[in-house]
Write a structure and sequence with these properties.
heterodimer; A: mainly alpha; two-stranded antiparallel ribbon; 69% helix; B: alpha/beta
């Protein structure tokens, strides 16, 4: 009986030696500079448009909002939101930060928001889709499963390895984003305030719980949510990889599911029960921003629960099939 | 390793296994036993259920009925105990091409307790691969992959080594080496289970054999006993074939075999024009040769041709053709 650590070591080594993670890092190294350049162009354009003194502009906005706070005609929850806004503007002024000019941390934040639905899942699939079907198409599964180790332990070692690599991917994305964009935008911005706590109920946004948190914490929360969404994608990809013999078929199946989710999300669906599909729930970071969810009734808690149920079902199917299936060729 | 060679201890016991896939019964009842230190052949034509049976032996396929015991451990219920005694290569020796030979061995060594670095070095030496072991497996030839596969199978010092068509793709010299190697392992007390679709190969290598056809074992026994059940052909080449044929046909102790009745490999016969195929006792050959010489017929060659698997099948199944 081999212990679990050895099995995980085996699986980690195989993914590493197959250069799967190297490919992921390479893709990041090529794509991030592209987006940094695009962001730089946007910043230059807006700097030309607003040639005026940004400090006096900020001061004006603070004065306007403080005046509005004194007014009786504005409802109480709106006042909370304005108070938070004033706090944020004051922070910019105190720390001599131009809110229009991006820094490495705001870039990272924006990148993560956009990457969580397609880009990160794609990188996760590069590793997950191959994990079992790769062994089957190469025939090595015959060697792997005829060793004195129970099958569920082998699949568990693959799952642990997958968890490790998903974590590496998230960390690599954040770190590379920060390091590369910092070259252009500067490495500041961890302490900048960001608003969180928006509650969307129906057509209204409840702003009574809105407050500012440091951007560092915000990025950490984003990374956590992105990790959760990626793990669900990874587990479902592992399941497909168990069920389908070819790596290509398993990759395409999962990619189709994820793209379908993105399309459904954009259709602002009137099909209410679509919210129980895993692929429309992947955009977890939007809940932090306070933009309305794609389908009414979706909240952060709801999405997390739906994803957790899908993942649990995926695991159950994976283990049931993997431990029982006949290896016919 | 007990070092004493053969004993009566049973290492592998297959008890009435059956396998249904969908509605089709692919294996309809296979039973046999393999004893310690013997080389056991598993003979059958392609599509007879050989590979399915082997896959069941190593827990890749679960039988629908029956059980398989390795050293008294049930392969399906306690694979982690039973498979510890087994080393195997199922079909081709597929290893990870992007790892080196050494990394592959380390990989499989981690899956079983008690395999040290020294043991890995040892098996590399046994199969004679020390020079190329740190190269990537994708650069290996088929013969080298075969060796690496055997090294992997030997890692855990198994009691039973299962090799599925091990001579596939090897050149004649490689086959000879493999045969000697297999004999050496058996002499050290290891049991070997070797599948093949070639009777000659089994004859050369094995002590006992099970013959499988259409998902059923049709005979189990000593190789020599089984082979003797089929006729050995005596093939004559004479300088006056027509007269010789008449002479042979008139002898009651010689049975003539027509061109369409025999099961001799065509490739063997193309090098022998005007061959006359007969079945007769070996001790009658000298007298026949004398007769021919007296009648002025020159004998160019007399050959004994061992029966093929097909011939043996015809005997065992009373004339039913395979497949």
């Amino acid at each position: 009986m081999a212990n679990m650590m050895n099995l995980v070591q085996n699986e980690t080594l195989k993914v590493w030696k197959k250069r799967r993670f190297a490919v992921v890092v390479l893709i990041l190294l090529i794509l991030i500079p592209v987006f940094v350049y695009a962001q730089m162009k946007i910043a230059q354009n807006s700097a030309e448009k607003f040639k005026g003194d940004w400090r006096s502009e900020l001061q004006n906005r603070i004065t306007d909002n403080t005046r509005a706070l004194g007014s009786d005609r504005i409802p109480e929850e709106w006042k909370k939101w304005r108070r938070a806004l004033v706090q944020q503007l004051q922070y910019y002024l105190d720390h001599d930060i131009n809110p229009q000019s991006p820094n490495a941390v705001t870039f990272t934040r924006g990148f993560m928001d956009n990457a969580v639905t397609m880009f990160i899942p794609l990188m996760v699939l590069a590793i997950a889709s191959d994990l079992v079907s790769g062994e089957r198409s190469s025939g090595t599964i015959k060697m792997l499963l005829t060793r004195p180790v129970r099958r569920w332990r082998i699949l568990l070692s693959k799952l642990v390895t997958l968890t490790l690599y998903v974590s590496f991917i998230i960390v690599a994305t954040v770190v590379l984003c920060y390091l590369i964009s910092g070259l252009v935008f500067g490495y500041r911005g961890w302490g900048e305030p960001v608003f969180v706590g928006f509650q969307v109920s129906g057509a209204n946004v409840n702003t009574s719980t809105v407050h500012a948190i440091p951007q560092a914490l915000y990025v950490l929360m984003q990374a956590g949510l992105a990790w959760f969404a990626s793990m669900v994608v990874a587990i479902l990809a592992l399941m497909v990889s168990v069920l389908v013999r070819s790596t290509a078929a398993s990759f395409v199946t999962m990619m189709a599911a994820i793209i379908a989710g993105a399309i459904l999300t954009n259709m602002a669906s009137s099909w209410n029960s679509a919210k129980y599909l895993f692929n429309v729930n992947l955009e977890l970071t939007t809940y932090l921003q306070g933009t309305p969810p794609p389908i009414e009734g979706m909240t952060l808690g709801f999405s997390l629960a739906v994803l957790a149920v899908w993942a649990a079902a995926g695991l159950a199917v994976s283990f049931a099939f993997f431990t029982k299936q006949d290896i016919l060729n | 390793m007990n070092g004493q060679g053969k004993s009566n201890e049973t290492v592998l016991s297959v008890q009435g296994i059956k396998k249904k896939i969908g509605r089709k019964e692919i294996i309809k009842g296979v039973s046999f036993e393999v004893r310690a230190g013997e080389i056991f052949g598993f003979l059958g034509p392609n599509g007879s259920g050989k590979t399915t049976t082997i896959r069941m032996l190593v827990d890749l396929i679960k039988p629908t009925e029956g059980r398989i015991l390795v050293c008294d451990q049930d392969v399906n219920r306690n694979p982690e105990l039973a498979l510890g005694h087994v080393g195997c290569i199922v079909e081709n020796p597929e290893m990870y091409g992007y790892l080196t030979g050494w990394e592959n061995l380390e990989h499989f060594a981690r899956m079983q307790e008690g395999i040290t670095r020294e043991r890995i070095t040892e098996v590399v030496e046994i199969v004679g691969m020390d020079k190329r072991i740190h190269d990537k497996v994708k650069t290996y030839s088929l013969g080298m992959r075969q060796r690496l596969g055997i090294a992997q199978a030997l890692l855990g010092n198994p009691r039973l080594l299962i090799l599925d068509e091990p001579t596939n793709g090897l050149d004649p010299l490689g086959i000879k080496e493999l045969r000697e190697f297999i004999r050496k392992l058996a002499d050290r007390g290891m049991s070997l289970f070797i599948s093949s679709h070639l009777l000659s190969e089994i004859q050369l290598m094995c002590d006992r054999v099970a013959i499988i056809a259409r998902g059923e074992v049709i005979a189990v026994g000593d190789v020599d006993d089984l082979v003797s059940q089929a006729d050995t052909y005596t093939v004559w080449q004479l300088d006056k074939p027509e007269e010789g044929r008449v002479m042979l046909a008139s002898d009651p102790e010689v049975k003539m075999v027509g061109d369409t009745e025999h099961q001799i490999d065509e490739s063997l016969l193309t090098g022998m024009p005007d061959a006359i195929i007969t079945v007769m006792e070996q001790e009658h050959i000298p007298r026949r040769v004398q007769d021919f010489v007296q009648a002025g017929i020159g004998v160019r060659s007399v050959q004994r041709v061992a029966p093929s698997l097909e011939e043996l099948f015809l005997r065992l199944t009373e004339g039913e053709r395979i497949g």
